[in-house]
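From the shared-data thread, chain only:
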Amino acid sequence: MIPNTQAIQRPSLARQAACVLAGTIVIAIAAQISVPMYPVPMTLQTLAILGVGFALGARLGAITVLAYLAEGALGLPVFANFSNGAAFFGPTAGFLVGFVGMAYVAGLARDRGLTGPVALSAVAVAASLALYLPGLAWPMGVAGALGVPVWGADLAVGPLAVAFMTPFVIGDVVKAVIAGLLASGGLSWLRARG
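Structure, as tokens:
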């Protein structure tokens, strides 16, 4: 049997660029959607980033998030609450940088052929929880080492975790499971059409 060469060819550069642009738009819109949760509201930004990774794969997913970060760095109001590159000098800059790894991990699952809802949800939860590593590392010392004064740099790990992690864990897990379920459902739908 001769393999379908159209299925294994890489999309054209123009199509990849269109996917990156569309992905940055989806992430920027999701960053502005606030869902009321206790004790703090959450945005759908991480859900969109996981979705971009699952949809585009590791390489193109990471490139999409890098393009999104570049848009913000250039002054476009694409981050949560319509903020821009100034967010790179705030206490949550580590999370912004960590978004690249989050999309890459989700994309690796796609590239490796994972399609089941449980497997994709588990990958999404792991990627979401791993986001706290750069998120907490930034105020704990990375910012200071780069000469950027940020709120929380004088706090111990416990108070930082309470401020930057505890209020968001439940929402992040919920969004991760939703992303895994949506990705699995989308892949099943594509296979049924194929």
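DSSP finds eight helices and two strands in the chain.
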